[in-house]
Amino acid sequence: MLFLRFLEEEKLLDNQAKYAIEMRNVTKTFGSVVANHNVNLDLREGEILALLGENGSGKTTLMNMLSGIYFPDSGEIHVHGKEVSIRAPKDAFDLGIGMIHQHFKLVDVLTAAENIVLGLPGGVRINRKALSEKIREISSRYGFDIDPDKKVYNMSVSEKQTVEIIKVLYRGADILILDEPTAVLTPQETDKLFRILKAMKKDGKAIIIITHKMNEVLSVSDRVTILRKGEYIATVNTAEADKQSLTDMMVGHSVSLSIDRPVVEKKECRLSVRNLTCLSEDNVPAIRDVSFDAMGGEILGIAGIAGSGQKELCETLAGLYPAQPGSSIVFHRPEGGDEELVGHTAAELQKNGINISLAFVPEDRLGMGLVASLDMVDNLMLRTYRDHSGPFVDRKAAADVATRLVKELEIVIPGIHTPIRRLSGGNVQKVLLGREIEGNPHILVVAYPVRGLDINSSYTVYNLLNEQKKKGVSVIFIGEDLDVLMEISDHVMVLCGGEVSGIVDPRTTTKEEIGMMMVHVDNDRKENQA
Amino acid sequence: MSAQASKEIKEPLFRITKRGSITAGKAWAIRGLALLGALLTGALLILLLGHNPFEVYASMISGAFGKKIAIQETVKLTIPLLITGIGLAFAFKMKFWNIGGEGQILMGGVAASAVAIYGTSLPHVPKLLLMATAAIVVGGLYGMIPALFKAKWGTNETLFTLMMNYIAIQFIMFLQYQPAWQEERTSFPKIRMLDASAYLPKVFGVHIGWIISLILVFVAYIYIAKTKHGYEISVVGDSPNTARYAGINVSRVLIRTMFLSAALCGLVGFLQVSGSDGTLTENTANGVGFTAITVAWLAKMNPFAMVLVSLFIAVLERGSSSIQTSHGIPSSAASLLTGIILFFMLGCEFFINYRLVHRGKKGEN
Amino acid sequence: MDIVFNLLTAAVLAGTPLLLGTLGEILTEKSGNLNLGVEGMMFMGAIAGIAGSWFTEQWFSGGGFAAAFVGLITSFLAGCLGALIYAFLTITLRANQNVTGLTLTIFGTGFGNFFGELLGKKAGNFVAVTTETKNAFAGAMNFGPLSKIPVIGQLLFQYNWLVYLSIILAIAMAWFLNKTRTGLNLRAVGESPATADAAGINVTKYKYAATIIGGGICGIAGMYISMVTCSGVWVHNCVNGYGWLAVALVIFSTWSPSRALLCGLIFGGLKILRLYVSIPGVATQIYDMLPYIATILVLIITSIRQSKELAQPKSCGLNYFREDR
């Protein structure tokens, strides 16, 4: 206790110590993967700190150690000047730290109010009236709009986020951590969120916002801390930073993102999609009236904010998701002859050899593209194990392919009989992409192919896609990073709310224009293009 | 807030981390230790009852292997466990929780008995073949019912298969009251003894079921590890979504595999009726359907390992009935001991997959 | 009319152990643990109840209320012990819930029969409690004038105290789950442990507590069978599938303690229906299939309707490990 009092006194003497959080040399490993290595981070009271880094740079892991989800292997954490040990989320709450996760942590079958009060101390019975009252009070102070008695499974994404933020405020948190809060929001919702964050800052709250979007960093934060590959790089004042300098620190060396866009002379239409409509699981249209042509020898980039129908679009193309009547997807064989794909199941397409012509690298690599517990050989057989007759599988042929792919794509793997789940994200993607290309497809659909990959693996993927394009394959690239899409694609199709808001030539279109199309369907413009 | 923060908070004493990998030797050493721990716990129990644990364990082993007839009896107990274990493992590999082995065995037994009772005039070998076929088909179809509902509506198979066990038992009790199934000139509710021509031949004093079971071990291994069907089972079991992506008809694999799983259980019903008991009762399955679940699980679905595990459990059961006569310890000790051993084996997997890290010195200052 | 009365009262008596087992399992499943060891825990409770009462009689010479009370406590503790083993294996050591539950059934069945036989030997040929103790269990409660009201008195006020205890327990559990803070937290743990954890709820503690108390209630259900259904005599294999039926009933009542009240009555009725109503041409063994067939029908219907609220807690059957990734 004496020691503690001494600390208190020292704090009084030292008026400079206005740090809400100080992290010192924090390290966290998962098995053999180092997620954070000797990371430092300071958060002042009454400021907004942006935590910037690429996907997989360890931002979320670092923040999860503040919120008590993970426990650091080594290093120190100080909160308001005192060293603490955060073993569980409860410890984080007691310290006034609240985190809003990217994947909302809400219980679907409970109401907003029930979710907000979850886990809090208090009387045996829940006083619902007082609870609603307090929620309304917080809502009006910051300008939220919420019905306390609405069940979470009936809510929109933005409503759910609101519940998450109120939940944290209700607990009296003065340190807020938001993990990529704008990924799922419309621009209007984003603006509103930023206004709220600034209001909270004025209230004296300390806020960390995790992001990899440069514009957001510049518009909302006071300072920026940059992580790269799990390492601490630097902290700079936002006022003294610009896009270029931040990018340099984030990616390590000055990259102009120069991705090749080779020109292919001979182009043929490979796939004609007309009036494609399909329903989501809740029976509302997930994509509506989508029409486009995909050319051999081209990369068609598909842009849009998360959840604009990308998933349904590629699964429908791959024959895994039913299209509504009136839709049409016609595959033009290179040797002549057309094939209507709508109305056939994946199994039927497989029988007709269609799904080898159309290769698909899904977003969920281990949950859909690969079998995590099987080895590389077994995973390579997935598409072809039926191709020869007889009741037995042919592992020898697959093993040969595996050995060759390991060499060609420089896959880091203990052995071809290691379960795929033990591989790192980049190597998992190489196995998956390698298998899909191995089938010599005519059409290659890739969904978020570089998500979670480091720079080098990403470029390997870009090169592989360009090689396919040069071979005359029609590549459909669903991406989230506009810069990448605009450098690699021959055309960019923009989706907004399940509709096509335009198909543009990225060489003659600005990023801002595409950004606008992502959030707004301009019917006049569509008319003009048609 | 800061007042609370000043509370002394220590690091947790132990942290749990996933092991990257572990050598096979080390894993088996951990399992060996767990078995030892279970036997010690059993010994403690025996000691509390006032017996010498060494004597009791020795008596169990000699009860299972001491005489020729004891060995034969032990093998007879092993056969149904082994085949049912193999059958259930098919379903488990697909993450389909078939806990209806009991009912599938009984329905196989019903089908085999029906052939013997209504087809008395059939000659020996064709009769046996027909009995086996009927048992396999009926057992398989009985197990296919929950699979159909699972495939169509995702109906919970654990409870569905479980309920089917009790329906099968009630059905046999119903048959016991049917005159055609009873001994002639009696109305005692009991299914009659089958003719000698419906009995399986014996090799080395045990019905040929033991040869069938060993053949099945190899066939099952090849089916799972080498065939397209086996490959599809692995894919569906790990990720139905990937299976769908690969164009595998998940429902068909589900229904087909469940038919095979239940068909093997049905075969066990035939072997019990025709080889072991000579008749059908509501106790023909005698808990085999449940015990075999643990056989499959302990053997990690490996058919060769199942030979050892099922033999081990048979020794426990056989040994327990011998200590009932020699030491007056109730034979229910078998399930008690099986339970204890299983608890230890289940628990030890944790130490194979995870590592405890003791907190460093730093936290103690 | 007499047949209907008799059927109803018999259904209540036969449904009570089912109701208790169901309540125990509902509490357990609300924490996200699918404990298939109900049968085993009921066996443990059955033998512990009878042993507790019997030893009390032996040591204090004389049965009655005290012996009954000790039986209640010991059966509860025995159920807790079974559930504790399950909880330790699945929550702390992350073993598979299905296999662990089945093992608990094997173990508990062995436990019950083993100690039942052992106790039988100790007591001479078989264990039986004294008539006073038996009456303390099975005797009807005295509600004074209420019990004498025609029809209603007969239907509502003439059961043993365990019947009323289980009804109160069902109502209390419904209140607990829907109205209290702890109940809300427990439901969150079963629906989404990661969310509960992030909200500062000690998931491990809740899972342990719900599973162990749930097991204790299953233990009391077992005691009801040995002390009331079997009249205080140890009968080999006495639980005989009641535990499994309770697991089925949890689904039948769609995880609601208040609906379990009604469903327990229906199942109890189906269990004893053949003793009261006979339909010509339908064998009595077919009646005995009805509860199982009814459960299968409910399973099928609930799976077809796919209701969000009338469903099993979402994390049921899955173990939770915070650092998993």
Automatic annotation (TrEMBL), chain B:
It holds the Pfam family BPD_transp_2. The chain crosses the membrane at residues 28-49, 69-92, 104-122, 128-147, 159-179, 199-224, 253-273, 293-316, 328-352. CDD domains: TM_PBP1_transp_TpRbsC_like (cd06580). Its main location: membrane. It is found in: Cell membrane. InterPro entries: ABC_transp_permease (IPR001851). This is ABC transporter permease.
TrEMBL record, chain C:
It is a multi-pass membrane protein. One of its GO terms (cellular component) is plasma membrane. Keywords: Cell membrane, Membrane, Transmembrane, Transmembrane helix. This is ABC transporter permease. The keyword tRNA processing does not apply. The chain crosses the membrane at residues 34-55, 67-89, 159-177, 208-227, 233-253, 260-279, 285-304. It comes from the Bacteria. It is found in: Cell membrane. InterPro entries: ABC_transp_permease.
